[in-house]
Write a structure and sequence with these properties.
By secondary structure, this protein is mainly alpha-helical. It contains ten helices and no strands. One of its GO terms (molecular function) is sequence-specific DNA binding.
Amino acid sequence: MRKKTILTATLLFIATTACQARTLTIAEADTIIVILLCIIILLLVTGAFGVHYSRIVYRRNEQLNRILNALNDYRAIVGDKDMSLDELEKQLKEKQVSQNANKPIPTEEAQTFFVKMDARVNKEKPFTDPDFDQQALADFMEVNLDTFCKLVPRYADPDRALEYINSLRAEYAAKVLMDPTECSLDNIASRSGFKNTATFNSAFKFAFGVMPDEYLDSVSQMFKKKGKKSILAAISKIFLTVWTFLLTS
């Protein structure tokens, strides 16, 4: 903003000097100054809008990055805590055989199972398969569906389990969207495991509060920011060249 103020003052000084040097009439000088002011105002408005939009994009990206980094840090911590996933699965299988099928599983054990499951699913990303559902998730964790429902009762409903899986897909898609070479939302949706774009949009909106195309636009603006600065600089150079020509003509 400081640079634009200096540029404005400089251009006004050049305009005033040019008018005095060429002994223009008051009407001619006023016309030139009005045109100059209009151009300056246009540049200032464009710059102000660019700064405002860039701040919005920056805050949105920072918020999403904090969410994703926090999730990754959490999974890294819980993934290495206590027993390994293989040890947990072995223990679960042994208890599955020895315990009565109707006996409820202890809460602590169920919580540990979910934490380990969440960490492993995010690491190996089986959800990128469009057919990955509740049964596939149970198979992935090498437990039968009945045991899975007891260990994770909140996802005993297949629809609820699918919502969880889609949230993981949305999280993965958000990371893919940070890559500026990925420009097709259909491609990103398919790569993340969604069967169609509509489900992708719904899951992404639910998880992050913005539509994927909106976030993609904001990411693209980050990479175009330098290009816009170059264009404004070029316009300024052209404008100064024109005034130099007027002064020397």
